[in-house]
Amino acid sequence: MLLEALEDWNPWWSEGEVSEDLKGITRDILSTALEYVELSKVKVVTGIRRCGKSTLLYQIIDSILTGEDACNVLLLNFDDVRLASTPIEEIYRMYLEELRPTNVYLFLDEVHGASGWVSLVRRVTDLGKAKVFVTDSSSYFIPLDYARVLTGRKISLELYPLSFREFLRFKGVVERAAGTEGHAILRGHLKEYMVKGGFPEPFFHSEKTARRILLEYFEDIVARDVVSRFGANYGKVRDLAYYLISNTSQMVTYRKLRGILGLGLETVQNYVNYLESVYLIFRVPAFSEKVKSQLMLPKKVYAVDTGLVNTVGFKISENIGAILENIVFLELKRRGYDIYYLPTEKREVDFVAKRGSEVRLINVCYDPSDTNTFRREVEGLIEGLRAIGLARGEIVTWSYKDKVRVNNKEVFFTPATEWLLSS
Length: 423
Description:
The chain is an alpha/beta fold.
């Protein structure tokens, strides 16, 4: 039965290649992952359940097979009970005996389900016996394992649901718009993206079916990734997840959540940490040079996917500005920025995005064409630019495009489709 499971998960042993249905459509992160293949470090891919981690592994394997014997590649998916119930050392030993590989590439999918994986990975990595990729749906457990025995031996990749650029690629749409009609069509695709979100599977179904799939995802994430791993109370953590997703782009405090849920303050803190560790939600702290201020001020919360917000929380039409802000946040995460919000006297700036020495101030405003809205957005961003000491800021809009200069500060209004598709 064990050998049969290995053959099921490694069809290239008999077919010599990865089938098209397994490879799917290329993800943007693939080029980065391929740069890491030959590094003598463990490549750790984390991300929310069903965001495409397994498909990414198949795409990496497909690239490896262009220059390697198929038997040198071993994939183990520990969502399969046949593999999860067998010690990984026993599985690996059988693989070596049956396939007799000469240059092993080892892929461990949903590795939290494996028994004894850390010691095997450390050994084969230290001895140069295999190049290793592992995936998991939580950022919590893998770092704990590495902290004990694999410090300095890993390199990490985070995978998110589809970006808008990837969404267009899935649809076969050319992302370069020409003329008024072309920009309007792109906005139509963005509206669909806001409704369905970026999980790959719902993309291929009608909106009604996509909603059923996303509801199932939500329940699975809560039950399998939070309750099963952390021992949380299912009803309470589900209510908390529902509340946070329904309040995306808003300020939250532990005391307010305690009052809503009727839980102890420490329990609320733990439950929020659990939901963030499985990538269902993200918290954004205030930007401050004082660490104490960052800890004391409220945090803003964002969801991992706008399709989940539209299905589990409020509808797009109820708060399209919050959905657009959530999309901008996720794109900044994909691009590797550390993200904060900036409190000012009049209002906060939505995002302070830091990446190395680069710092950007970004507001999101669906429609700034009203005079009062326009003035409020510009004045708030200018105040933030002065506080940070920057010369230019950005306001992401639905379709409005403009540039204004106030004293020595510039503010650029950029339509969301253009901003999301910029390099």
